[in-house]
Design brief:
mainly alpha; 79% helix; single chain; 2 helices
């Protein structure tokens, strides 16, 4: 069951990371910057974090 949750999260992270980067969000400048940082973190997690988590298990 835990593996299913991990796979589901991996799929979600990959989907978000693969989203086009040119998509503009509405909101204030600060909100847009915040979303850019969130998306960058998700991309890094999807690329690096999941691979290192698997090797630790």
């Amino acid at each position: 069951m835990a593996e299913d949750l991990v796979r589901e999260r991996e799929t979600e992270l990959r989907r978000v990371a693969a989203r086009p980067r040119g998509v503009r969000r509405e909101g204030t400048r600060r909100q847009r910057l915040g979303w850019m940082l969130v998306e960058a973190g998700l991309r890094l997690t999807a690329e690096n974090g999941v691979a290192s988590a698997r090797s630790a298990v």
